[in-house]
Amino acid sequence: GRGSRYVLEDTQSIEKLLEATGYHGSTDGLTPKAKAVSRHGDAHFGKDDSLLIQISTRGEEIYWRKNGKTVDIKTIVKDCGMASIVIRPEDHWQTDSPIALVENIDLLVYSREYFAQIPFQGNILYYAGWAGATMIEWLKKQPQAPQIIFPDYDFVGLKNYLKLKKIFPELQIFIPGELPELIRRFGNKKKFVKQSQKYSLEQNDDDV
Fold this sequence. Notes:
Blueprint: H1 11-21, H2 32-40, E1 51-58, E2 63-66, E3 69-72, H3 73-80, E4 83-87, E5 99-102, H4 105-109, H5 111-114, E6 122-126, H6 133-140, E7 148-150, H7 155-167, E8 172-173, H8 179-186, H9 189-198
Parallel strand pairs: 5-6, 5-7, 7-8
Antiparallel strand pairs: 1-4, 1-6, 2-3
Protein backbone atom coordinates (compact mmCIF):
# COMPACT_ATOMS: atom_id res chain seq x y z
CA GLY A 1 0.00 0.00 0.00
CA ARG A 2 2.99 2.34 0.39
CA GLY A 3 4.07 2.03 -3.24
CA SER A 4 7.25 0.06 -2.47
CA ARG A 5 8.83 -1.88 -5.36
CA TYR A 6 10.65 -5.18 -4.86
CA VAL A 7 12.98 -6.81 -7.38
CA LEU A 8 13.42 -10.61 -7.38
CA GLU A 9 16.96 -11.63 -8.19
CA ASP A 10 16.63 -15.40 -7.81
CA THR A 11 13.32 -16.21 -9.50
CA GLN A 12 14.07 -19.94 -9.74
CA SER A 13 14.26 -20.25 -5.95
CA ILE A 14 10.99 -18.35 -5.60
CA GLU A 15 9.29 -20.61 -8.14
CA LYS A 16 10.51 -23.71 -6.29
CA LEU A 17 9.21 -22.29 -3.02
CA LEU A 18 5.79 -21.57 -4.52
CA GLU A 19 5.59 -25.04 -6.02
CA ALA A 20 6.29 -26.54 -2.61
CA THR A 21 4.15 -24.26 -0.46
CA GLY A 22 1.83 -22.23 -2.71
CA TYR A 23 -1.92 -22.59 -3.25
CA HIS A 24 -2.75 -24.72 -6.28
CA GLY A 25 -6.48 -25.31 -5.93
CA SER A 26 -9.49 -23.57 -7.46
CA THR A 27 -9.60 -19.80 -7.02
CA ASP A 28 -13.38 -19.81 -6.50
CA GLY A 29 -13.07 -20.42 -2.77
CA LEU A 30 -10.49 -17.70 -2.14
CA THR A 31 -11.19 -14.40 -0.42
CA PRO A 32 -11.62 -11.41 -2.80
CA LYS A 33 -8.07 -10.06 -2.42
CA ALA A 34 -6.46 -13.51 -2.63
CA LYS A 35 -8.51 -14.23 -5.75
CA ALA A 36 -7.39 -10.94 -7.29
CA VAL A 37 -3.74 -11.78 -6.63
CA SER A 38 -4.12 -15.25 -8.15
CA ARG A 39 -5.91 -13.96 -11.26
CA HIS A 40 -4.41 -10.49 -11.79
CA GLY A 41 -1.28 -10.38 -9.67
CA ASP A 42 -2.70 -7.35 -7.84
CA ALA A 43 -4.80 -7.34 -4.66
CA HIS A 44 -6.36 -3.98 -5.62
CA PHE A 45 -8.43 -5.76 -8.29
CA GLY A 46 -10.32 -7.56 -5.52
CA LYS A 47 -13.99 -6.61 -5.25
CA ASP A 48 -15.49 -7.25 -1.84
CA ASP A 49 -19.24 -6.77 -1.37
CA SER A 50 -19.04 -7.23 2.39
CA LEU A 51 -19.42 -4.17 4.63
CA LEU A 52 -17.75 -3.53 7.98
CA ILE A 53 -19.94 -1.45 10.26
CA GLN A 54 -18.38 0.14 13.35
CA ILE A 55 -20.91 1.25 15.94
CA SER A 56 -21.23 3.25 19.13
CA THR A 57 -24.51 4.00 20.88
CA ARG A 58 -26.37 6.58 22.93
CA GLY A 59 -29.42 5.73 25.00
CA GLU A 60 -30.83 2.48 26.31
CA GLU A 61 -31.78 -0.83 24.68
CA ILE A 62 -30.03 -0.68 21.31
CA TYR A 63 -30.53 -4.03 19.57
CA TRP A 64 -29.64 -5.46 16.16
CA ARG A 65 -31.40 -8.44 14.56
CA LYS A 66 -30.57 -10.99 11.89
CA ASN A 67 -32.58 -14.07 10.93
CA GLY A 68 -34.35 -14.25 14.30
CA LYS A 69 -31.17 -13.61 16.32
CA THR A 70 -31.01 -10.48 18.50
CA VAL A 71 -27.75 -8.84 19.64
CA ASP A 72 -27.53 -6.34 22.50
CA ILE A 73 -25.22 -3.77 20.89
CA LYS A 74 -25.52 -1.35 23.81
CA THR A 75 -23.90 -3.86 26.19
CA ILE A 76 -21.10 -4.65 23.73
CA VAL A 77 -20.30 -0.94 23.39
CA LYS A 78 -20.40 -0.48 27.16
CA ASP A 79 -18.00 -3.39 27.72
CA CYS A 80 -15.71 -2.99 24.70
CA GLY A 81 -15.86 0.68 23.70
CA MET A 82 -17.49 0.03 20.32
CA ALA A 83 -19.07 -2.79 18.33
CA SER A 84 -18.55 -3.98 14.77
CA ILE A 85 -20.57 -6.10 12.38
CA VAL A 86 -19.47 -7.58 9.07
CA ILE A 87 -22.44 -7.45 6.72
CA ARG A 88 -22.33 -9.73 3.69
CA PRO A 89 -24.74 -9.56 0.74
CA GLU A 90 -26.81 -12.46 2.07
CA ASP A 91 -27.09 -10.92 5.57
CA HIS A 92 -30.09 -8.96 6.78
CA TRP A 93 -28.82 -7.11 9.85
CA GLN A 94 -31.36 -4.49 10.97
CA THR A 95 -31.97 -2.16 13.87
CA ASP A 96 -35.14 -0.35 14.90
CA SER A 97 -33.18 2.40 16.66
CA PRO A 98 -32.31 5.73 14.98
CA ILE A 99 -29.04 6.04 13.09
CA ALA A 100 -26.50 8.87 13.11
CA LEU A 101 -23.60 8.88 10.63
CA VAL A 102 -20.16 10.22 11.59
CA GLU A 103 -17.26 10.81 9.21
CA ASN A 104 -14.58 11.25 11.87
CA ILE A 105 -13.74 8.20 13.99
CA ASP A 106 -13.06 10.51 16.95
CA LEU A 107 -16.83 10.92 17.32
CA LEU A 108 -17.19 7.15 17.48
CA VAL A 109 -14.41 6.49 19.98
CA TYR A 110 -15.36 9.44 22.21
CA SER A 111 -19.10 9.45 21.55
CA ARG A 112 -19.87 9.93 25.26
CA GLU A 113 -18.02 13.24 25.27
CA TYR A 114 -19.13 14.49 21.86
CA PHE A 115 -22.79 13.57 22.26
CA ALA A 116 -23.14 14.75 25.86
CA GLN A 117 -24.91 17.96 24.71
CA ILE A 118 -26.54 16.56 21.56
CA PRO A 119 -30.10 15.22 21.93
CA PHE A 120 -29.59 12.03 19.94
CA GLN A 121 -30.44 8.52 21.11
CA GLY A 122 -29.61 5.51 18.98
CA ASN A 123 -26.81 4.05 16.82
CA ILE A 124 -23.72 6.03 15.85
CA LEU A 125 -22.22 4.60 12.63
CA TYR A 126 -18.77 5.46 11.30
CA TYR A 127 -18.57 5.77 7.50
CA ALA A 128 -14.82 6.47 7.10
CA GLY A 129 -14.89 9.56 4.92
CA TRP A 130 -17.25 8.47 2.15
CA ALA A 131 -20.47 6.45 2.26
CA GLY A 132 -20.09 4.02 -0.63
CA ALA A 133 -22.73 2.19 -2.66
CA THR A 134 -22.64 -0.94 -0.47
CA MET A 135 -23.36 1.04 2.69
CA ILE A 136 -26.10 3.09 1.02
CA GLU A 137 -27.90 0.00 -0.26
CA TRP A 138 -27.75 -1.49 3.22
CA LEU A 139 -29.06 1.74 4.82
CA LYS A 140 -32.01 1.71 2.41
CA LYS A 141 -33.14 -1.59 3.94
CA GLN A 142 -33.22 -0.28 7.52
CA PRO A 143 -36.57 0.32 9.24
CA GLN A 144 -35.44 3.89 9.91
CA ALA A 145 -33.44 6.00 7.47
CA PRO A 146 -30.39 7.85 8.87
CA GLN A 147 -31.56 10.85 10.90
CA ILE A 148 -28.46 13.02 11.20
CA ILE A 149 -24.94 13.21 9.77
CA PHE A 150 -21.80 14.64 11.34
CA PRO A 151 -19.44 15.28 8.39
CA ASP A 152 -16.12 17.02 8.08
CA TYR A 153 -16.94 20.56 7.00
CA ASP A 154 -14.90 20.48 3.79
CA PHE A 155 -15.79 19.90 0.14
CA VAL A 156 -15.73 16.10 0.40
CA GLY A 157 -17.75 16.02 3.63
CA LEU A 158 -20.40 18.39 2.31
CA LYS A 159 -20.57 16.65 -1.06
CA ASN A 160 -21.16 13.36 0.71
CA TYR A 161 -23.97 14.93 2.75
CA LEU A 162 -25.66 16.31 -0.39
CA LYS A 163 -25.41 12.90 -2.05
CA LEU A 164 -27.04 11.18 0.94
CA LYS A 165 -29.65 13.93 1.30
CA LYS A 166 -30.95 13.10 -2.20
CA ILE A 167 -31.42 9.47 -1.16
CA PHE A 168 -32.65 10.13 2.39
CA PRO A 169 -34.61 13.43 2.22
CA GLU A 170 -35.16 13.56 6.01
CA LEU A 171 -31.42 13.45 6.74
CA GLN A 172 -30.24 16.46 8.74
CA ILE A 173 -26.71 17.83 8.97
CA PHE A 174 -25.30 18.81 12.36
CA ILE A 175 -23.86 22.33 12.30
CA PRO A 176 -22.27 23.62 15.53
CA GLY A 177 -23.43 27.09 16.48
CA GLU A 178 -19.83 28.31 16.63
CA LEU A 179 -18.81 26.73 13.29
CA PRO A 180 -17.78 30.01 11.55
CA GLU A 181 -15.49 30.87 14.46
CA LEU A 182 -14.05 27.34 14.57
CA ILE A 183 -13.27 27.48 10.84
CA ARG A 184 -11.66 30.91 11.22
CA ARG A 185 -9.44 29.74 14.09
CA PHE A 186 -8.63 26.18 13.06
CA GLY A 187 -9.46 25.85 9.36
CA ASN A 188 -6.75 24.76 6.92
CA LYS A 189 -6.88 27.33 4.13
CA LYS A 190 -4.37 25.48 1.97
CA LYS A 191 -6.45 22.28 2.14
CA PHE A 192 -9.63 24.22 1.39
CA VAL A 193 -8.13 25.82 -1.71
CA LYS A 194 -6.76 22.47 -2.91
CA GLN A 195 -10.14 20.76 -2.50
CA SER A 196 -11.98 23.65 -4.17
CA GLN A 197 -9.78 23.17 -7.23
CA LYS A 198 -10.35 19.41 -7.32
CA TYR A 199 -14.00 19.05 -6.29
CA SER A 200 -17.25 20.81 -6.96
CA LEU A 201 -20.48 20.38 -5.03
CA GLU A 202 -22.28 20.29 -8.40
CA GLN A 203 -20.23 17.35 -9.74
CA ASN A 204 -21.68 13.93 -10.36
CA ASP A 205 -21.47 11.65 -7.34
CA ASP A 206 -19.00 9.34 -9.10
CA ASP A 207 -16.42 12.11 -9.39
CA VAL A 208 -15.09 11.66 -5.84
